[in-house]
Design goal:
The chain is an alpha/beta fold. It has 13 helices and 13 strands. It has helices at about 20-30, 45-50, 55-60, 65-70, 90-100, 115-130, 155-175, 195, 220-235, 275-285, 300, 310-325, 380-385; strands at about 5-10, 35-40, 55, 105-110, 135-140, 180-185, 210-215, 240-245, 290-295, 335-340, 345-355, 395, 400. A hairpin with a 7-residue loop joins strand 10 and strand 11 (about 345-355). About 50% of the residues are buried.
Length: about 400
């Protein structure tokens, strides 16, 4: 049998476990050495590959470095936010597929989120149109958990664990003084509030802080928000509120835009930040209490020390399944998780059509949010709790975790 090569890339925002999926790809490919020769890694995703930036992973990484991928955050291969043209007649497609041919690449695996699945879909369409033998598979990755047709996405469990742990810390810190205070925690989430919803897991008992949780799935009213804070301050001295960065009013205007205009990225998405600070100023103006806002920012996607063991294992599994799929001849598909109907949490991998995944978003079900839109309900807790289970072990040196990184 004539051997061929595969190429793997990482795209979009990093997660704590995106490298675990890369590890899964490398290890599974190694089990098929009778047909797979080299595993190439795209440096900075499809954009870097277009500019001839790639590496021979097994030749350039030691086995020790490959093993460290499992516990290393960020994207080892680098990332990009590159949007392929809609027109299949654009010369960039012919350029990409010529590189595939020149490098004897028959399988392409792309680890990423919604926009990355758009890339998988377009390349699959072009391959089919030109009768190319290259098979293309997407491996899911996103802390936002907004990919459709999968129970959840690798990256979300660790982000949820970090949010729940950190908000619990903030709650304890906010309660040390015998004076009234309001703490507003701004969390990631543009249109889907999965990450912010995870803050409910921080509660130590029923009716504990955070007392209010606001998701983008429900229209946000600033006046009602202030009134709710004032009402709670009649009962509790210290109020912690968690808000998604993408909360918006009934007209669809992001609350962060109340204080200025948000820019846009290459995919046309508004770059959101600042709703927590805006609400801090609103509360400060209307209520005579101490108030502060906290933006957790990038730690939500890179805190490897708080990674969920479940998340890590499933990320590896997703990478492995992607390789098995392309070897079996599948193309234009994304690896997805299906939760088994059993008394104990268990998932299995399946494949879904990438064209049905890209450019769609899975939001938190309305029945998991209370009627007022100020809290998350038990249905979400039961869904999310298994995803944050388990702790990971790290190789340590001089009191710090050891990570693998690519020398530029």
């Amino acid at each position: 049998m004539e051997k061929y090569n595969i190429v793997v890339g990482q795209s979009g925002g990093p997660t704590t476990v995106i490298n675990a999926s890369l590890y899964g790809v490398i290890k599974e490919a190694g089990k098929h050495s009778d047909e797979i020769d080299k595993v190439y890694g795209m440096i900075n995703g499809i954009e870097g590959f277009i500019h001839d930036r790639y590496m021979d992973i097994n030749a350039e990484m030691t086995q020790e470095e490959i093993e460290l991928l499992v516990s290393t955050p960020s994207s080892y291969l680098g990332s990009c936010r590159y949007k392929l043209p809609d027109s299949m007649d654009d010369g960039i497609y012919a350029q990409i597929f010529k590189k595939f041919s020149d490098l004897n690449i028959k399988c392409f695996i792309y680890i990423g989120g919604n926009d990355s699945m758009d890339t998988v879909s377009k390349l699959s369409i072009y391959a089919r149109k030109t009768s190319s033998p290259v098979r293309i598979i997407g491996v899911p990755k996103t802390i936002d958990n907004d990919l459709v047709l999968t129970d959840h996405s690798p990256g979300f469990g660790s982000a949820a664990k970090y949010v729940a742990s950190t908000v619990r810390d903030i709650v304890l810190d906010a309660s040390v003084y015998d004076t009234q205070s309001v703490t507003i925690v701004e969390l990631m989430g543009r249109h889907a509030g999965w990450i912010t919803a995870a803050s409910i897991l921080a509660r130590k008992f029923q009716e504990d802080n955070p007392y209010l949780i606001y998701l983008p799935e429900v229209a946000f009213d600033v006046e009602a928000f202030v009134n709710k804070i004032a009402e709670l301050l009649q009962i509790h001295k210290n109020i912690v509120v968690c808000v998604s960065e993408g909360i918006k009013d009934k007209d669809g205007t992001f609350i962060c835009e109340y204080s200025g205009c948000a820019g846009v990225d290459t995919f046309g998405h508004k770059m959101l930040t600042g709703c927590g600070k805006y609400l801090e100023n609103v509360v400060k103006e209307h209520l005579a209490v101490k108030v502060r806002s906290v933006e957790l920012n990038v730690n939500q996607r890179c805190k490897a020390a708080l990674a969920s063991d479940t998340d890590v294992r499933e990320a590896v599994m997703a990478g492995e399944h992607g390789v098995k799929a392309v070897i079996a001849g599948e193309t234009g598909k994304m690896v997805a998780f299906r939760r088994k109907d059993s008394s104990q949490y268990e998932i299995e991998c399946e494949l879904v059509d990438c064209s049905e995944v890209c450019n769609r978003e899975k939001v938190v079900p309305r029945e998991w949010i209370n009627e007022e839109g100020t809290d998350v309900l038990q249905g979400f807790v039961e869904y999310a709790r298994p995803l944050i289970a388990g702790e990971t072990k790290h190789v340590m040196k001089d009191g710090l975790p050891v990570y693998v990184y690519r020398k530029q």
